[in-house]
């Protein structure tokens, strides 16, 4: 049987945390339960187990080997384009567990990862596989490491149920956050911009982001207070995220405070996560006696509806970007009948070009661009582009979403942290060129891991500058680049097409997106996800991607 063979020539055995795997209670109960199967200290799998493992192996080769590698070492053909890298199962180092740090996961833990995936990474969930298939896969994964046989089933920690939270808990949690130095990695507002963040690497020495705590839908282990609290007790083995069990045992914090911390972390994000997907930005008409907000910090924005648009790496054209830093943008808009102000905000832990993040940039480039494409090693600015067609399209026709084509160009509002704001047109990715005499104004600020840019322009356009009319759905799409994440040119985070609609002057009409529009956008999302999932197996030198 293959699994057994692999156990015999396993390389990493005993290298990791051997002490933590000592004679725990799991070992003892294993002995008492299965004495007949013990030969020289090792349990032989029963006939049924062997069948499970074989079946699991077949499923594995079909669905998992592309990423996790033929031998389970995390080095499949698609792996070199991913951060974090796929798990190496021969190491038995699992991240999302119900067991103490340094311990093996339970069978249920592994099955949970297979069922739900690890959000925020390329590891998808596999709800399409039934329970028995998931169980067989789990049996196979366990057969890839000798630890499971040697140590027997681990003990789950016992978890209390959440005490309820409330204002006081949040205030206490905020203090615990500083006391336990969470901000060192996650930053003061939790956006992953702490001073240690650019230096963090996982156990394979690959760069790892300090999670953005304001986007818990991307947490590997789930976004609920209960799940967050569990991660404190179990740690995320293989990452720099420390378990708080030591602080608890040493009396630095008590268990109530650890719950307060979990409530506080959850409070850093909106109540509904992920934010509801919407297709249309409603640009509110301000009252006649009000003024359009001049900058990103203006109080007027507080009352304006925010819209969230998720973004994914540009993986259709070379050089591709599989692991962009920016996961999405928040968009708000207001107009006064003659001018529009659009505020776009997004989380980016570095104010590029930031010399403190140069080591991160080099590591990411080294990890992801080892295929002969040029590494961006110089200091790069952060960028954003808001994309429109050059004119309001008839029916469903829109330019190609990746910056248009020669037949159908796009019109862009561009900003970069070095040169400020420009108006451009483009006829494809990497072709953007400025329009003369920019009519676009704006301002940008960066604070605690978040950029906010306000664009202002008159509603009336000219030539390739689209005119914006009240009540008309105008297609819009977004691009973002994090310079210190080695993103430049075609290596960007992109959204699909959405729409902006200016409220008509009476201010009370509610615009309803036609069903066709909704379907189009939804269909496109699926397409993007599929393209992203397909990954890329080929190498080859791409273009240098300068331009956009
Ligand atoms: C598209 C790539 C991809 C595919 C396909 C894939 N995985 Fe993964 N998997 C990953 C990545 C990446 C990680 C590591 C994520 C991290 O470190 O946060 C991972 C992690 C895991 C983990 C570890 C969970 C933990 O808590 O540490 C398990 C278990 C797993 N995968 C099982 C599977 C199984 C079973 C399949 C096939 C049914 C599969 N994966 C297919 C990319 C993939
Ligand atoms: C040394 C740096 C470091 C410190 C200190 C740190 N973290 Fe983390 N944390 C990380 C990293 C890195 C990750 C992401 C791991 C990954 O992507 O797999 C993470 C992930 C998380 C997650 C997401 C868990 C999940 O399911 O994906 C939460 C929540 C979190 N940290 C909260 C905290 C809190 C609260 C503190 C303080 C008690 C803290 N962290 C201290 C580095 C750190």
Key traits:
single chain; 548 residues; alpha+beta; Cytochrome Bc1 Complex, Chain D, domain 2; Immunoglobulin-like; 14-stranded mixed sheet; two-stranded antiparallel sheet; 16 strands; disordered N terminus; disordered C terminus; binds heme C
Question: Would you write up a description of this structure?
Answer:
- With 548 residues, the protein is of the alpha+beta class.
- The protein contains 14 helices and 16 strands.
- It has helices at residues 2-8, 25-33, 47-63, 65-68, 107-116, 131-143, 146-151, 167-179, 183-186, 225-234, 245-249, 255-267, 358-368, 515-534; strands at 38-39, 42-43, 280-285, 307-310, 312-313, 328-335, 339-347, 383-389, 410-416, 420-426, 433-434, 441-447, 450-458, 473-481, 493-494, 498-502.
- Strands 3, 4, 5, 6, 7, 8, 9, 10, 11, 12, 13, 14, 15 and 16 form a 14-stranded mixed β-sheet that branches. Strands 1-2 form a two-stranded antiparallel ribbon.
- It binds heme C (HEC) (2 copies).
- Residues 63-64, 66-68, 78, 82, 84, 86-87, 94-96, 110, 113-114, 118, 121-123, 126, 137, 141, 220, 535 line the site of one heme C (HEC).
Summarize the structure.
By secondary structure, this protein is of the alpha+beta class. 26% of the residues lie in helices and 16% in strands.
Helix and strand layout, with pairings?
Blueprint: H1 2-8, H2 25-33, E1 38-39, E2 42-43, H3 47-63, H4 65-68, H5 107-116, H6 131-143, H7 146-151, H8 167-179, H9 183-186, H10 225-234, H11 245-249, H12 255-267, E3 280-285, E4 307-310, E5 312-313, E6 328-335, E7 339-347, H13 358-368, E8 383-389, E9 410-416, E10 420-426, E11 433-434, E12 441-447, E13 450-458, E14 473-481, E15 493-494, E16 498-502, H14 515-534
Parallel strand pairs: 3-6, 3-16
Antiparallel strand pairs: 1-2, 4-6, 5-15, 6-7, 7-13, 8-9, 8-14, 9-10, 10-11, 12-13, 14-15, 14-16
Helix pairs in contact: 3-6, 5-6, 8-12, 10-12
Bound molecules: heme C (HEC) (2 copies).
């Amino acid at each position: 049987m293959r699994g057994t063979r692999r156990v015999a020539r396993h390389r990493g055995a005993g290298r990791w945390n051997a002490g933590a795997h000592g004679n725990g209670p799991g070992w003892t109960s294993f002995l008492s339960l299965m004495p007949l199967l013990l030969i020289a200290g090792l349990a032989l799998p029963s006939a049924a187990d062997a069948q499970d493992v074989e079946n699991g192996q077949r499923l594995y080769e079909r669905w998992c080997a592309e990423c996790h590698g033929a031998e389970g070492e995390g080095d499949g053909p698609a792996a070199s384009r991913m951060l974090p890298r796929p798990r190496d199962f021969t190491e038995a180092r699992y991240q999302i567990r119900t067991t103490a740090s340094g311990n093996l996961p339970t069978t249920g833990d592994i099955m949970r990862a297979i069922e739900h995936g690890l959000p925020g990474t390329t590891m998808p969930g596999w709800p399409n596989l039934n329970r028995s298939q998931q169980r067989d896969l789990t049996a196979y994964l366990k057969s890839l490491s000798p630890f499971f046989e040697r140590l027997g089933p681990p003990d789950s920690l016992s978890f209390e149920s959440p005490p309820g939270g409330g204002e006081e808990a949040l205030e206490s949690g905020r203090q615990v956050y500083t006391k336990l130095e969470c901000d060192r990695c996650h930053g003061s507002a939790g956006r992953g911009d702490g001073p240690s963040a650019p230096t963090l690497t996982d156990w394979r020495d690959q760069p790892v982001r300090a999670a953005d705590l304001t986007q818990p839908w991307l947490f590997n282990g789930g976004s609920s207070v209960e799940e967050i609290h569990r991660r404190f007790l179990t740690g995320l083995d293989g990452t720099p995220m420390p378990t708080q069990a030591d602080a608890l045992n040493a009396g630095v914090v008590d268990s109530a405070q650890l719950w307060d911390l979990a409530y506080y972390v959850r409070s850093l994000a909106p109540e509904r996560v992920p934010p509801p997907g919407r297709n249309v930005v409603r640009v509110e008409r301000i009252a006649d006696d009000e003024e359009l907000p001049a900058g990103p910090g203006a109080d007027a924005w507080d009352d304006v509806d925010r819209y969230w648009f998720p973004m994914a790496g540009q993986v259709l054209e070379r050089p591709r970007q599989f692991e962009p830093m920016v996961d999405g943008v928040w968009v708000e808009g207001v107009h006064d009948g003659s001018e529009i102000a659009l505020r776009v905000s997004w989380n980016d832990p570095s104010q590029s070009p930031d010399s403190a993040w140069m080591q991160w940039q080099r590591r990411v480039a080294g990890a992801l661009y080892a295929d002969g494409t040029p590494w961006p090693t110089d200091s790069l600015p952060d960028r954003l582009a808001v994309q429109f067609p050059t004119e309001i399209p008839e029916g469903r026709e829109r330019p190609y979403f990746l910056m248009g084509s020669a037949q159908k160009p796009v019109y862009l509002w561009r900003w970069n942290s070095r040169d400020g704001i420009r108006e451009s047109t483009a006829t494809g990715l990497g072709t953007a060129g400025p329009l003369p005499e920019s009519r676009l104004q704006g301002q940008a600020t960066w604070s605690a891991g978040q950029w906010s840019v306000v664009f202002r322009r008159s509603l009336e356009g000219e030539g390739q500058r689209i005119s914006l009319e009240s009540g008309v759905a105008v297609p819009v799409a977004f691009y973002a680049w994090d310079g210190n994440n080695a993103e430049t040119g075609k290596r960007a985070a992109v959204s699909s097409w959405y729409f902006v609609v200016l409220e008509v002057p009476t201010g009370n009409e509610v615009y309803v997106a036609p069903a066709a529009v909704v379907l189009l956008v939804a269909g496109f999302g699926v397409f993007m996800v599929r393209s992203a999932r397909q990954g890329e197996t080929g190498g080859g030198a791409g273009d240098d991607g300068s331009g956009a």
